[in-house]
Amino acid sequence: MTDVIIAPLDQLEARTFAGLQNAGADEVSAGAAIRAMLHASRLGIDSHGVRLTPHYARVLRSGRVNPTPKMQIRRTAIGSAVLDADNGLGHAAGYAAMELACSLAKEAGVGAVGVINSSHFGAAGAYALAGAEAGCIAVSMSNTDSIVGLHGGAERFHGTNPVAVGAPVPDQKPWLLDMATSSIPFNRVLLYKTLGRTLPAGVAADQSGQPTQDPALVEMLMPLGGIDFGFKGAALAGMVTLFSAILTGSTLDHELIRMAETHDFETPRRMGHFCLAVDPGQFLGRALYDEAISRYLAALRTSAAREGQTVMAPGDREWAVEVERQRSGIPVDQETAQFLGLIP
User: Fold this and answer.
1) Do 152 and 273 reside in the same domain of the chain?
2) Whether residue 290 is found in the same domain as residue 280
3) Rounded to two decimals, what is the model's pTM?
4) Residue 322 and residue 43 in contact, taking contact as beta carbons nearer than 8 Å
5) Which CATH number covers residue 171?
6) What keywords are assigned to this protein (predicted)?
7) DSSP string, 129-149
8) Are residues 206 and 252 located together in one domain of the fold?
9) What is the domain extent for residue 252?
10) Which residues contact 315 (CB under 8 A, 6 or more apart)?
11) 260 in a domain, yes or no?
């Protein structure tokens, strides 16, 4: 691709950290944001990778996001808690909530943490992966600002509302699902607009609700399943709102200040997230779990494939991308590269 530059991981990490610290972020906040963004960039989820650095720097400087938050935890039961993110960067809240959920799960079998007073936390899979690496089956989700039409609808209602699940696998990378409940993430529309690329058919609509492939004309996304089966994506988006916003008492999708399409970058968005962790050892026992998931994945990956196709488990494609990008570097769009000082 001629519309990106390739940057080595260590250089990208240093420049991104400097960009956030120059905007006022403390070391914990900047470190968590970089960890989550580089997770996305390494695995090929470029819409949620380092391209978000300029946006985060802007909201840190403008007052929407607290650059030096003092997060607080309130235990509500043996297996549940609420984490107040103090309107800081959502990445720090996401990682802290998942760490707490895993700690609760080791004690109670299941740990659930609701996050309040937070902000955009990027790729939900970053926190599900952290939970899986801690030995838990982990779920992370967040509602977001209204950008997705309902099934049969002609206006924005839900956010892209991502949900991610990670599960540990012995001697292998975790099983990792990371998906938006919309047809695509809205950040991909912004990325394609920056790159001058055309969107796939049936993933977005213009102001009149008609499908469009021009990212400059997109008014809303379609729910997962598109025109015919979008009721599935719309219902899943509602589930994420239920856990992330309704259960935590946070801002509902249609009431959230928009992430980027707004003139208000000063008012905190008070977003909610939800993290769930399950300790397999507290159910069938860790040895039996390890054997079962290994046997399951071995059967899945050797299952017969159609001609020209490859059967993969969730996460397999991303782990392959990570290997390649660790070797060759991370692609960065020109606009972000300029902000980070990677090009003049």
Assistant:
1) yes
2) no
3) 0.94
4) yes
5) 3.30.1370.60
6) Oxidoreductase
7) HHHHHTTSEEEEEE---S-EE
8) yes
9) 4-284+317-339
10) 173, 174, 175, 176, 177
11) yes
Q: How many domains is the chain built from?
A: 2
Instruction: List C-alpha distances in Å: 269 to 86, 217, 272, 310.
Output: 11, 26, 9, 42
Beta-strand ranges (E) seen in 247-308 are 271-278
What single-letter DSSP state applies at residue 198?
P
Does one domain contain both 296 and 243? no
pLDDT (tens digit, 0 to 9) for every residue of the chain, 344 residues total? 458 899 999 999 999 999 999 999 999 999 999 999 999 999 999 989 999 999 999 999 999 999 999 999 999 999 999 999 999 999 999 999 999 999 999 999 999 999 999 999 999 999 999 999 999 999 999 999 999 999 988 899 999 999 999 999 999 999 999 999 999 878 788 888 888 999 998 899 998 888 899 999 999 999 999 888 999 999 999 999 999 999 999 999 999 999 987 889 999 999 999 999 999 999 999 999 999 999 999 999 999 999 999 999 999 999 999 999 999 999 999 999 999 999 87
